[in-house]
Design goal:
- About 35% of the residues lie in helices and about 15% in strands.
- α4 packs across α5.
- The strands form two sheets. Strands 1, 3, 5, 6, 7, 8, 9 and 10 form an eight-stranded mixed sheet that branches.
- By secondary structure, it is an alpha/beta fold.
- It has one domain.
Length: about 270
């Protein structure tokens, strides 16, 4: 199964868009005319172990890199097609962000809203997941050239992920366009035999690109894994999303209950 179905037709639409929009100004969105990938089917790999026995990898598209190393290039034509492999023991204060397409205020306040290392480490200690992989992978998901992403970056990313023999991957986008980049990464990983879960807050993009598994709630770009400085909210989102990996027996997008719970708390004036 192709990562991008009818890729030649998509490349034509992308070339037309490029001619009309040679530059994406500022830190804004790509606009309504951008040709998001349209897939009809999704690859799917069943989970062969219970969540509590799985070695889990984290993949973030928030443009995270270690201070003192080369940052991602926000002006690279079509997007920066590099990724970073970062130890999970890294201190939050040592991380920086190339935040194209999203407001970095929340993740600068609390790393866990986009890179939930503390929450996932808690899940490991509490036996919710079997093990958190010792490194996570980061890239800048503001990549307009989805064709090059699929052809050039994703095979290299899959090779690195498979070397660690992880058994499932959680993918977290940051911007609207990141939802496409992350969904394509999830498709490539599942095609390579690795179950995934994509956390999403932009439903129309994931419905169009069709990652194998997606957990959707009405959250905010830039804090997709929960609200800053609210660990319980983050735990709810991640716990509910991850627990969908094992029982799912076919591709799908699931609405998380945490959104409704949060609205009820808001109406009550609770935090």
């Amino acid at each position: 199964m192709e990562i991008i179905e009818q890729v030649d037709e998509w490349r034509k639409r992308y070339a037309d868009w490029q001619r009309e929009h040679s530059k994406v100004s500022g830190n804004g969105d790509v606009g309504d005319s951008y040709p998001f990938v349209k897939n009809k089917r999704a690859p799917f790999t069943p989970a062969r172990r219970a969540l509590s026995m799985l070695s889990l990898a984290l993949i973030s598209s928030a443009g995270v890199y270690i201070d003192g190393t080369d940052p991602f290039d926000p002006n690279a034509p079509g997007g920066d097609l590099n990724f970073r492999e970062i130890p999970i023991e890294v201190e939050a204060a040592d991380l920086r962000f190339v935040a194209k397409g999203y407001d970095p205020a929340s993740v600068q306040q609390d790393l866990n809203v986009q890179v939930p290392l503390e929450r996932l480490s808690e899940f490991e200690v509490n036996g919710i997941i079997g093990q958190l992989n010792p490194v996570f992978w980061s890239f800048s998901g503001f990549i307009t050239d989805a064709g090059r992403l699929a052809d050039e970056m994703l095979p290299k990313l899959i090779e690195r992920v498979k070397r660690y023999e992880v058994q499932a991957a959680l993918l977290i986008p940051a911007s609207r366009l990141c939802h496409q980049s992350v969904s394509l990464a999830a498709r490539a990983l599942e095609q390579a035999g690795l179950p995934t879960m994509t956390l999403a807050v932009v439903k129309d993009v994931v419905e169009s690109v069709r990652p194998p598994r997606a957990a959707f709630y009405e959250g905010e770009l830039g804090s997709v894994a929960g609200r800053p400085s609210w660990p319980e909210h983050q735990r709810r989102i991640l716990d509910e999303a991850l627990r969908l990996i094992e029982p799912m027996d076919q591709p799908g997008i699931y609405q998380l209950a945490v959104g409704l719970e949060t609205r009820v708390e808001g109406e009550r004036g609770e935090r």
